[in-house]
Amino acid sequence: MIAIIDSGIANLRSVEKALQRLSVEAQVIDDAAQLREASGIILPGVGAFADGIARLNSQGFVESLRREIERGKPVLGICLGLHFLFSESEEFGLHQGMDLIPGRVVRFRNDPADSTATGDRLKIPHMGWNRVRSSGRRPSCRVSPMSRSSTLSTRITWSRRIPR
Q1: Cis bond before residue 163 (omega within 30° of 0)
Q2: Which of 2, 86, 124, 125 would suit a FRET pair with 158, their CA atoms being 20 to 30 Å apart?
Q3: pLDDT single digits (tens) 38-82
Q4: What are the residue boundaries of the structural domains of the chain, listed by start?
Q5: What pLDDT score was predicted for residue 73?
């Protein structure tokens, strides 16, 4: 069973319905102790970093997540849920994350798109259909057999990044 963490700050039903469509057994949980029974964990999140990490701490999820990850359990952070896994975030001040992935989540700078740009600034948050390509240099996840194409089109909304 895949545990979907209900921290009160996420669109749980979209994640739950996606897993149902894939015939994956999943359960929305609001008790950190239930993470032990899961074969994997999904941490979705929407909203402000400081409020979200405070809720996860108050519900006991931060320490429970750390224990389960140390045991080798796979975890998928979606949107703000991924941000929580990093060391810290600069969203509306500097806030401590779970520090499971070293790095700081920062806002995109409002620079021209590239050195050949006409001076147009990037729109932040960036929203739209984009091509995502794997450079092969720093894979961030395993590629499953059904998604081995070198280019993937996806709808994304970004206003934060993790610098190298």
Answers
A1: no
A2: 2
A3: 999 999 988 888 999 999 999 999 999 999 999 999 999 988 898
A4: 2-110
A5: 94
Q: C-alpha angle 57/30/90, rounded to 5°?
A: 35
**CATH code linked to domain 2-110:** 3.40.50.880
SS (H, E, C) the chain: CEEEECCCCCCHHHHHHHHHHCCCCEEEECCHHHHHHCCEEEEEECCCHHHHHHHHHHCCHHHHHHHHHHCCCCEEEEEHHHHHCEEEECCCCCEECCCCEEEEEEECCCCECCCCCCCCECCCCEEEEEEEECCCCCCCCCCCHHHCCCEEEEEEEECEECCC
Express each pLDDT in 86-96 by its tens digit.
Answer: 999 988 889 99
**What are the residues whose beta carbons fall under 8 Å from the beta carbon of 113, sequence distance 6 or more?**
120, 122
- Name the nearest CA neighbour of 92 among 80, 107, 81: 107
Residue 111 in tokens: 């620079």
Residue type, 10: A
Question: CA–CA separation, 103 vs 16, rounded Å?
Answer: 29
The pLDDT value given to residue 34: 96
- C-alpha to C-alpha distance for 79 and 10, rounded to whole angstroms: 9
Tokens coding 85: 């896994």
Side chain identity, residue 135: S
Classify strands 160-161 and 101-107 as parallel, antiparallel or unpaired: antiparallel
